[in-house]
Amino acid sequence: MKPNYRGRFAPSPTGPLHFGSLVAAVGSYLDARTQGGEWLLRMEDVDTPRNVPGAAEHILATLEAFGFEWDGPVLWQSQRLAAYAEALAQLQAAGLAYGCACSRKEIADSASQEMIQAASQATTRATIQPAIDGGLIYPGTCRDGLPAGRSARAWRLRVSDEEIAFTDRVQGRVAQRLARDVGDFVLHRADGLFAYQLAVTVDDDFQGISDIVRGADLLASTPRQIWLQRCLGFAEPRYAHLPVATNAAGEKLSKQTLAPALDVTKAAYSLVRALQFLGQPVPEALARASVKEVWAWAREHWRFPLIPPVATIAWPLLP
Ligand SMILES: [Zn+2]
Known about the structure:
Layout: E1 6-9, H1 19-33, E2 38-43, H2 55-65, E3 75-76, H3 81-93, E4 97-100, H4 104-120, E5 154-157, E6 163-168, E7 172-177, H5 178-181, E8 185-188, H6 196-206, E9 211-215, H7 222-232, E10 238-242, H8 267-277, H9 291-301
Bound molecules: zinc ion.
The site of zinc ion has 5 residues, from loops.
């Protein structure tokens, strides 16, 4: 048993939990509990326009019905704005965060302009590529000061070209060069909201999280969070990124792909499917057992090394 293990599950209240969220919850929960660790809950409601009224309460009730037991009170990001402001001020004072006046359109125009130039110079590789999470790499317009007559809309974090690498417990070695792959990224958005990357990093440190177990859809965000940890003087947690649940069309289960909400009347059934998805040899008979019995089996038989790095079967095609 490893002392001082602290894990967490951090859903966004943008809709009800679905099978993909359940996989992340089960993986982080069992990793924590089988190591004698704590498991904390955090409601990631910082992106207020995306919050759905009642979704947070629905998520908590669903987790309870599925037999999850969390330690301590739920942490709500909407109540943590002062902590995010303090972290931003620290980065500003250190010259690591700078004001950016660019609109999304200006960044897109500048990116395509450079692409056109690159193409006209017949280089084989465009200098601007789509950033890893689908956005555009910020061209650095305001890095050395705001253009004359412009004021800051957002705040960005200066990144470096050094390689940021970590060894994920499921995915193996992951490395990024933020300057090349992501660019200076936003900490405080033009709409006045704190960015996800800042909120998550500040909260994981605040909650003393030692182990982050979550879906591999967040793998590309991790080097940004590690860079933020270094800039803020935080300790680096261990990471495990679980395979992402997809539908039969290969799309990630989400609200956008109309993933069905978890059915609390079929909790044991869904837990068994989540365990199977995570590579655990769970007896099929448990799908008709009680939630308690499923957890008893899982706590006794959980084997982390069996988790596959990528999904081997699509939901709802699981047996
Ligand atoms: Zn700018």
